[in-house]
Amino acid sequence: MPLPTLLGWTAAGRDLIDGAFVFCTDCYAVHRVSRSDRAPLYLSDGTPTIVDDCERFLAVHRDHRLQVLTRSSDAEMISHARWDPMCRVMWDVSDGETDFVVTFGRTDIEGPREYVVTPGRMVLERESVEVDEDALRHTIDEALYPHAAPVHKIDALVQTCLRLLLATPSDELELLDESRDEPNVQLAGLPLSVAEPLREKVRELFSEEEAEGLFAILDHDLRYDIPVVRLIRRYRIEPLD
Ligand SMILES: [Zn+2]
Predict the structure, then answer these.
(1) 92, 98, 124, 197: which has the highest count of C-beta atoms within 10 A?
(2) Where do the domains of the chain lie?
(3) Residues whose CB is under 5 A from ligand 1 (ion)?
(4) Measured between alpha carbons, how far is 120 from 100 in angstroms, rounded to an integer?
(5) Within 10 A of 140 (CB to CB), how many other CB atoms are there?
(6) 8 C-alpha to center of ligand 1: Å?
């Protein structure tokens, strides 16, 4: 992204790049542009004072080469659960020509977020899909209630579901949310490409009364409300030559 002249860093101009990173290539220092840069701080006696972190950064690096880096992919690695104040985040960023990885987080719980930029890009190192079989089984059992379907039929349905899910390419999974407590774990429901063949399996195995409840969970609960699929991704940084 072309760098606006420093004199052009008006409030409106900065809003346009809200969330981007200003990177000094001389010092390797980084500032993340944020609307809260201009928020007033209150001194202990309650007097408001305007401390503009972005202006301070621009003043310190006035005669240096500055670039605006924006996020350039969806790749993300986090070190802890996102709610944890010590969570460190890693993203791909770019000035449009060169790829960098920015890492940000706190080294001290009381301290500000610190940003580190290194030339390189994030490369998916490991990706795995897991299925919460207990939750799947429990949802199926509840859907069958009050009918008492034979266990071997339930087992056959669960096994078909596992087989179909583990054969599904990860980009076909429909992500619903991220795990609240486990970093780098996305939760997904059953994609249509799995729900549809499972409907066939239900028709084949179960009576009409039993099938009714199972269709409901295949069309709704297991697709949108009960994420039984976990997608885990790990990245590494590939340095630029
Ligand atoms: Zn500098």
Answers:
(1) 92
(2) 6-123, 127-236
(3) 24, 26-27, 61, 64
(4) 5
(5) 21
(6) 19
The pTM score is 0.79
State in Å: Cα 31 to ligand 1 middle: 11
Q: What's the DSSP call for residue 172?
A: G
Q: Considering only CA atoms, give the Rg of the chain.
A: 25
**Residue in the block written with tokens 């997904």:** 188
Residue 192 one-letter amino acid:
L
| Distance, CA of 43 to CA of 29 (rounded, Å) | 27
Query: From the CA of 26, how far away is ligand 1's center (Å)?
Result: 5
pLDDT tens digits for the chain (241 residues)?
445 554 456 666 667 778 899 999 999 999 998 876 666 666 667 766 666 788 888 889 999 999 999 999 999 999 999 999 999 999 999 999 999 999 999 999 888 889 999 999 999 999 999 999 999 999 999 999 887 778 899 999 999 999 999 999 999 998 999 999 999 999 999 999 999 999 999 999 999 989 999 999 999 999 999 999 999 999 999 998 7
Measured between alpha carbons, how far is 76 from 182 in angstroms, rounded to an integer?
14
- Written as six digits, the tokens of 48 are 């408001």
The residue assigned the tokens 């349905």 is: 157
